[in-house]
Amino acid sequence: MKNSAVAVVGGGITGLTAAWRLQQRGVDVTLFEAGERVGGVIGTVKKDGYLVERGPNTLLETTPLIGEMIDSFGLRERVLYSDPSAEERYIIRRKEPVAAPSTPPGFFRSRLFSWSAKLRLLAEPFVRKSKPEADESLADFVRRRLGREFLDYAINPFVAGIYAGDPEKLSLREAFPRLHAIEQEYGSLIVGQFRGAKQRKRSGEMSKQNAAKLSFDEGLQVLPDALAGSLGDRVHCGTAVTKLQRSDHRWSLGAEDSTAYNAVIFALPAYRMAELEIIDTTSPFTGLNSLSEIEYPPVASVALGFHRNQVEHPLKGFGALIPEVEGFQILGTIFSSSLFPNRAPKDHVLLTSYLGGTRAPHLVEGRSHDELCATTLSDLRRLYGITSEPTFAHSVNHPRAIPQYNLGYQRFRESMSAAEKSLPGLFLAGHCRDGISLGDSIDSGDRAAGKIQKFLLNSV
Question: How far is the C-alpha of 237 from the C-alpha of 327, rounded, in Å?
Fold first, then answer.
């Protein structure tokens, strides 16, 4: 295996993790990234005393692998865990932020839900589970088990914050496999919540709901930079790979790279995989064209800074999500300066809001920085009592942001698995394959590295 060469295409967190794990195992690995920097959607901007994330704001410590990475790169001293006083999450109801309940007693005391919705929840353990093979939408699942109000004021805003998606279109089995598994195993979400917690404790894993939220002193960009640093000159930025050819059980990436690779990992968005020209001299291959059908709605991130005394709301929490039925334009807001220190100058606050998604792509497509900021500020004034103009403004427009695991998504997974089976030595990984969170992407890279290790050992 030490004489084997592996190419990793894609310098996001998945590709970086895969390359790092392969290098740990003595594999000669080279990473190719089309852009001028590594990290993919992860990116940190420092300007005018503010620290802004271009994409994700936090990393959930859902697996021991994340701690292993932090310790391996000597980053433990630079880790920042979210402020314990910033755990409160808000949902907008009746045009104002209402604290979301975090405990069963808190749920029944909360004014977020009506008493009819609260009583409806008591019937959940007695609802019949669906057939295992059913591809049910998340919305249908929630209406069936929990009721319409829970869909409108819990799941709809939650999905907007995670997928920027539509619960009527998202597949329960594909987008939220854990919920599907809990219903199938326990017949009840409430029963499964208690029993599943014991299983996670034994495995060392943490549910996303309870996992610690972390970042670094210089933002999340610290982690991909550390991964790239560990790979040294094996990272080639500004190098797009658009063609792949297999001959005599080896892979080549085009005229600019003469190396013959034993295996290749593509850790790219689905629409980039669909554009690849893949040639197999030993057998026909139809390609990955179907992956172009995966929906990637546009999402804009807008970070606005204000004087603390010009914001009426105390901002004591993680942030707020907005149900579609409330009629606002933004999807939600993270109270960035409440989560971690040094995100804003003294006596200032930083709010990071999101627009677009499947709910309102027209609010993002073709919009300028000024238009995005104006739309965001209009909602923030109404929600948080802001009385001044921003002291800072930064926006990022992601034309294709998050893959939607919609109904029928299984066929895309099957297409990727079929490609790997028909082309030994080709491996696909990333957020279109194994989940959209940063933790999922790290796990995806780790799994891909494990598959390649097994492949190389069996090829000797």
Answer: 43
Sign of CA dihedral 421, 413, 271, 441: negative
What is the C-alpha separation between 427 and 421, in angstroms, rounded?
A: 9
Separation CA 232–CA 256 (nearest Å): 20
Place of tokens 């109904």: 407
Indicate left, alpha or beta for 219 from its phi (over 0: left) and psi (-120 to 50: alpha): left
Check if the beta carbon of residue 103 is closer than 8 Å to that of residue 109.
Answer: no
pLDDT tens for residues 343-385? 999 999 999 999 999 999 999 999 999 999 999 999 999 999 9
The tens digit of pLDDT for each residue in 171-222 reads 999 999 999 999 999 999 988 887 766 665 555 555 566 678 999 999 999 9
Q: Is 84 helix (H, G, I), strand (E, B) or coil?
A: helix
Q: What DSSP assignment string belongs to 168-214?
A: TTBBHHHH-HHHHHHHHHHS-HHHHHHHHHHHHHHHT---TTTSPEE
Q: Which residue has the tokens 């409160």?
A: 88
In whole angstroms, give the CA distance from residue 166 to residue 360.
11
